[in-house]
Specification:
The chain is mostly beta strands. It contains no helices and nine strands. The strands form two sheets. A five-stranded antiparallel sheet has the order 2-8-4-5-6, with no helix packed on it.
Length: 99
């Protein structure tokens, strides 16, 4: 694998952002952050391709899914959705190479 660069992908509050990973590349997702304030009557979350990767329940109980970072995304189009504040994925992009 050859490092292509750093990709920080930010999605605004209550929006869905589609982003692309080029053919022959992968993203190594290192972490996710969410800007939302912890309010007891509100739930903040971030979804990647329809799956929760960040979720804040009432009273600040936090659950991160998947439970361990890093994880990888293959090439193609992916969607990031944020509710309750903006979210940022922190990632490294690699080009797959053959020896």
């Amino acid at each position: 694998m050859e490092l292509v660069g750093v990709r920080n992908i930010t999605c605004e509050n209550n929006q869905t952002l589609d982003f692309e990973i080029e053919e022959g590349n992968i993203l190594k997702i290192l972490s996710v952050t969410h800007s939302g304030a912890l309010i007891s009557t509100h739930t903040n979350f971030t979804k990647l391709n329809g799956e929760y990767i960040y979720f804040t329940k009432h009273y600040g109980d936090r659950t991160y899914l998947p439970p361990s970072f890093p994880f990888y995304l293959s090439n193609g189009t992916h969607s990031l959705h944020s509710t309750g504040g903006y979210s940022t994925l922190y990632a490294l992009e690699f080009k797959l190479t053959t020896p």
